[in-house]
Amino acid sequence: MAGYEDFIDMNYKPDSHDVIASFRVKVPKWSSAKRAWGAVAAESSVGTWSPMAAMNYKNVKAVAAKVYEAKGEWIKIAYPEEHFEEGNMSQILASIAGNVFGMKAVDALRLEDMQFTKKIVKSFPGPKFGKKGIRSIFKVYDRPLMLSVAKPKVGLTTSQHVEVGRQIWEGGLDLLKDDENLSNQAFNPFEKRVRESLKVRDRIEKQTGEKKSYLINITGPTLKEMEKRAKFIKEQGGEYAMIDIITTGWAAVSSVREICGDLGLALHAHRAMHGAMTRVPTHGFSMNCVAKCARLLGVDQLHIGTANVGKLVGSKEEVMHLNSQIVDEKIEANEKLHTLPQEWFGTKPVFPVSSGGLHPLLVDKVMDKLGTDIMLQIGGGIHGHPGGSYAGARAMREAVEAYMEGIDLAVAAKKCPELMEALKYWGRKGTR
Ligand code: CAP
Ligand code: MG
Questions:
Q1: Of the candidates 405, 407, 399, 368, which has an alpha carbon nearest to the alpha carbon of residue 381?
Q2: Which of 94, 158, 278, 427 is deepest in the core (most CB within 10 A)?
């Protein structure tokens, strides 16, 4: 009658039409492993706590999940792809990552990966621009793209914010970025900020002969408002919208991808709040899953962390895997991380953004780990430079160029006073 244990079939061999989930299950002392594992498969697909005859209907069984592998605390569950509505991330996650995290039947539960089928991957748009498309906006192909978020995070007036933009663009960076919690506050209204920043941007492009752009946060109270903001960016000559993908939600990201796609705007994804789900290794929804959802939904750029160099958690191995997950066409299983193989069936690569606690003296460590085909984002490590934002940007550009040319920072600093000052100020300390 479909009690929890009936959702286990260790003889089952999944095929290419099954979506696979990799879960870590903490079994309560009072329960059995089989009951706990089965509960996850049941509640995340068709089941509930109370057995009933209808669970045995052929049509219900056809979309039920089953546990088919267990190694220690880690189990794999197969879901027939028919279980899911194509292109609907909110529905997919309401199953695989839904009620299960709150069940008393498990003490803790971690979803590390979801392996999607060709049909499901193809039902999502993926990035419009992707890495290649973004690079062709800037016509910069041989170094990391460099961006800076204005700091303080919020509170600057529009003219103070625009001045930060001027300084970092003039100092040699490619992109200004809004912070995740700056949207349309009274001290710095959205439309005024966009209009005035892009005017200054146009001037600096002429002055420097380099393409400059601005990641403008359209995160808003409703989809209608976000659409209005995206359209305004387009009218004013911007190339990008930015969205907080977790706080706005998956359906909002999907809709904004559609809107930006039609407008021809690239989409920068900020992952603020992801740590609430991703940080605890025994519970929650992994950053690997967040990254996969973001690539399917079609963001062009995504924050992935610094591989343990900067201020935020995220091990080297984990961040290197994220880098590969959003860029490569074929992902191999990683036994250590408990992640699954994934084919991306032509979905474009997302540009990985490394950010959080970086300064010009740390970027070489990031590039050693993640390579140079990335975006480097620095806030405090630019605006906290003793000489201010322009000097911080100069130091950053010089540090990246020195790395690309294989020149030691101390040598490069001899012809760049701003880098010399950064070297003295930050030394080789890490940030926390
Ligand atoms: C970086 C940042 C980003 C974080 C988010 C901030 O500023 O703008 O939001 O990088 O984390 O406000 O902290 P700093 P992640 O350069 O001053 O640290 O990139 O890991 O998603
Ligand atoms: Mg920020």
A1: 399
A2: 278
Q: pLDDT at residue 430 above 60?
A: no
Residue 432 has pLDDT above 80, yes or no: no
Residue 136: CB atoms within 10 Å: 11
| Phi/psi of residue 74, nearest 5 degrees | -100, 130
Identity at 209, one-letter amino acid code: G
Q: How far is CA 364 from the centre of its chain?
A: 22
Give the atom of ligand 1 at the shortest distance from the alpha carbon of 314: 20
Per-residue pLDDT averaged across 278-295, rounded? Answer: 97
Please pick, among 270, 292, 321, 365, the residue that the annotation labels catalytic: 270
Average pLDDT estimate for 161-169: 98
d(CA 137, CA 126): 18
Taken in order of first residue, the domains within the chain and their CATH numbers are: 7-122 (3.30.70.150), 130-429 (3.20.20.110)
| Confidence (pLDDT) at 14 | 98
Length of the chain: 432
Quote the mean pLDDT of the chain. Answer: 96
Whole-model pTM: value is: 0.96
268 is catalytic: no
Nearest alpha carbon, ligand 1 atom 13: 356
Q: Is 272 exposed, middle or buried (0-12, 13-18, 19+ CB in 10 A)?
A: middle
Strand partners, 71: 74
